[in-house]
Design brief:
The protein is of the alpha+beta class. The protein is built from 23 helices and 26 strands. β6 and β7 form a beta hairpin.
């Protein structure tokens, strides 16, 4: 018996070794050949140097040669990512992953991204079209040379990528627009507020705050909507739904004048917050074009450096949150939609979606002149669906010689709309808003659906890009954007009605302001410390205001709490849950749909209100509501982590949980997914950190020593399993790098490569 068991164990061990060997062979067999490169169409030889993190420095004679090399290098490290992005935009994911991806495919076929991108290519300025062609040339040159060694994912899925086209690049651009400007579902949610009391509607729908960090002031002092006075008798509350904790979608970017820095030169910092993926959304790259340096991050599928610096100016972006989507409720009879006193045809197209392991699906998409019908008879008007508006001016942006030429290049950047913060070598800092702002019917802001039959509800054009606000060398000595309401009413046009919480911007501005008051000069390390700051001022103030009605010892603990989202903090975990349960009860009492939510600033106002105000607002006893919410929060946490409060930590709830696309398939997560670990930071702190969303890159520049600029991404430059550079930046991204040695962008070359015509 013992001998049989030993034999079985030996057989299992041998099988495991054989499987491991086969896997290792398969991984190595599918790593691309990195020994040399050739791209037809180059005007001259291109040299590429790789540092110890695998970041490429491309030395080329012309911008187009550099973009061809960028395409080749992107395909070398991120080809599967390129293929998925293209398929996502074109609605072709079900073809390789099966029916589970049909919802995403249906949505993108309804939007018609493929048709928009292909129609836009011939409408682009000649130079921008040539940039896209150069990038595609490089990608396709890599495909032609690799002989099937394209990556393990292609081998396992048994698919091959198609040749890349300029329209594919524009489709990738449209996916980014979708990520940063989708608002139409909120319009549907806000429409439901028409059924609640007007006082409640004003209080919950207005996202502006008296604490906003404005770059364009209000025309008049901001007036906070008052707490609803509903006469005191509580309504019968709806059942308490589960309110999803709202996470801000956006980024941080700020610049500091040289007068406030140790070096006497401007400082610049940017950390865009996006969904975390493996590989990451950005591919770091450096260019030396005709002797001029440009460095930063590229977006696989688009030409040039998107965020970064050259020898004269550094620039970064945060989402402006411009509302560029409106819904129109159409009056349709048969195949005609009403327009004033006339009728127009409703166009139909049939999209055939291939499904792996199943039959193709035929999707009928209907469109009016406003746009595709995305839900029932709701047509979506979205400027991203107008091919005549599409532009890709990245080459002009990255080769700008000063902030004036940078601003001119950004005038040709219609969407997605951004706050662009910059700092230049000459000593100036500033901000400008980019993108197109629709001009709507007077008295409306597009926050709820329009009547599509009334032509007066159609857009009246756009605010000219040259009229978008901007700021140079503000008297405070710094400029901060973190997706807050930064454009006040003095601008004269409604930019959006859905500004995110101001707390990240306020925290950053307060930290910079404290340094100014204390006469404490700042440096690059101080910029990174702010990027890694994990304090939530609004949550701290909210729990301090609720503390008198909390049971002991929680009341005393929250009264003096510092608001930190440290991974080991029990208080942050409890505070987040208590705030959410508090909001659920308030919304249920007011019959407000959960998807509308309650802005952080309004929750704080409620927390500061007294018992009499609660009763007038039909919320009943303040203490009873607060205690009920707090007890529900503790019960939820106990259900997740057990009754031992020592195990209640924020990090346990906030573990990194990034999935590789193939890690979602049964049995492959162990092979493809990155490590999981507890994280400090949260959605409402400067260090934005959630299980699947966070700082997609951290970038900081001191113009006193620009060669010491630092840049780190969550994982690494390569998407290939088996590459040494797949996750080698994770440690620096996770722990920070005060000295700048691990994350310095300019590093000595380790290997070199020549790319020939």
């Amino acid at each position: 018996m013992k001998r049989a068991l030993l034999a079985a164990a030996a057989a299992i061990a041998a099988a495991a070794l054989l499987a491991a060997g086969a896997l290792l062979f398969l991984v190595r067999r599918n790593l691309p050949d990195l020994s040399s490169g050739r791209i037809p169409g180059l005007s001259s030889r291109v040299s590429v140097a790789f540092d110890d993190r695998g970041v490429a420095t491309v030395t080329a004679a012309t911008v187009r040669d550099a973009l061809r090399a960028q395409g080749w290098l992107t395909a070398r490290e991120r080809l599967f990512q390129l293929e998925l992005q293209r398929r996502l935009a074109r609605g072709e994911l079900a073809e390789i992953f099966g029916a589970s991806l049909l919802p995403a495919d249906r949505l993108h076929r309804t939007y018609g991204f493929t048709r928009v991108a292909e129609a836009a290519v011939p409408l682009l300025p000649e130079g921008e079209r040539a940039d896209l062609e150069a990038l595609a040339d490089g990608i396709n040159a890599f495909l032609d040379a690799q002989g099937g060694r394209l990556g393990l994912e292609f081998a396992l899925l048994r698919v091959s990528p198609r040749r890349f086209t300029p329209a594919d690049a524009l489709a990738v651009h449209l996916v980014m627009c979708e990520d940063l400007s989708t608002s139409w579902r909120r319009d549907l949610a806000l429409e439901k507020l028409s059924r609640v009391d007007p006082a409640v509607r004003r209080f919950v729908a207005d996202t502006a705050s008296a604490d906003d960090v404005l770059l364009v002031p209000d025309a008049a002092p901001f007036a906070l909507p008052p707490l609803p006075d509903l006469g005191g008798v509580p309504l019968a509350a709806l059942g308490f739904g589960a309110l999803r904790e709202a996470e801000p979608l956006g980024s941080n970017a700020w610049a500091v004048a040289g007068a406030l820095s140790k070096s006497g030169k401007p400082l610049f910092a940017n950390d865009p917050h996006l969904t975390l993926t493996l590989p990451g959304i950005w591919l770091p790259m450096r260019f030396v074009i005709a002797g001029r340096l440009i460095e930063g991050v590229t977006l696989p599928g688009l030409p040039g450096v998107i965020l970064g610096r050259n020898e004269r100016v550094a620039w970064g972006m945060t989402t402006l949150r411009t509302d560029v989507q409106d819904l129109y409720r159409e009056t349709i009879v048969g195949k005609r939609a009403k327009r004033g006193t006339t009728w127009e045809n409703v166009e139909e197209r049939t999209e055939t979606i291939a499904v792996r392991g199943g039959k193709p699906e035929a999707l009928v998409v209907r469109e009016t002149s406003h746009g595709p019908l995305v839900q029932g008879r709701m047509a979506l008007k979205w400027l991203a669906l107008d091919p005549s508006l599409m532009r890709v001016p990245e080459s002009a942006v990255m080769t700008a010689t000063n902030h004036e030429s940078l601003s001119r290049a950004l005038d040709a950047f219609p969407y997605p709309a951004h706050n662009v913060v910059w700092a230049d070598a000459a000593g100036s800092i500033g901000w400008r808003a980019t993108g197109l702002v629709p001009i709507r019917r007077a008295g409306t802001d597009g926050s709820v659906p329009y009547d599509g039959a009334d032509p007066e509800n159609d857009w009246k054009g756009y605010v000219p890009p040259a009229d978008m606000p901007r700021l140079v060398d503000p008297p405070e000595g710094f400029v901060v954007t973190a997706n807050q309401r930064d454009i006040g009413t003095r601008f004269g046009r409604s930019v959006t009605s859905d500004w995110p919480s101001t707390e990240r911007a306020r925290r950053i501005a307060d930290l910079l302001g404290a340094a100014v008051r204390e006469k404490r000069p700042l440096d690059r390390a101080a910029m990174e410390a702010i990027q890694l700051d994990d304090v939530s001022p609004v949550l701290k103030k909210t729990l301090a205001a609720l503390a008198p009605d909390l049971p002991e010892p929680w009341s005393a603990r929250f009264a003096s709490w510092d608001g930190r989202a440290d991974a080991g903090s029990t208080l942050f975990l409890v505070a987040r849950s208590a705030r959410r349960k508090f909001a659920e009860r308030v919304l249920a009492a007011w019959h407000v749909p959960l998807e509308v939510g309650l802005p952080d600033a309004r929750l704080l106002e409620l927390a500061r209100a007294d018992d009499a105000a609660f009763r007038r607002a039909r919320l009943g006893s303040r203490r009873e509501l607060v205690r009920a919410a707090f007890n529900a929060a503790r019960a939820d946490i106990s259900a997740r982590f057990g009754s031992d409060e020592a195990r209640w930590t924020w990090g346990a709830s906030n573990r990194l949980a990034v999935k590789h696309p193939l890690g979602r398939l049964p049995g492959l997560g162990w092979l493809f997914d990155p490590p999981s670990f507890p994280q400090s930071g949260a959605g409402g702190t400067p260090r934005v950190a959630t299980p699947t969303y966070g700082q997609s890159v951290r970038f900081a520049v001191d113009w006193g020593a620009p060669e010491e600029a630092t840049l780190v991404i969550p994982f690494g430059v390569s998407g290939h399993l088996g590459s040494a550079h797949r996750t080698d930046q994770l440690a620096g991204w996770r722990a920070g790098d005060p000295t700048g040695t691990r994350t310095r962008f300019a590093r000595p070359p380790v290997t070199t490569l020549e790319i020939t015509p």
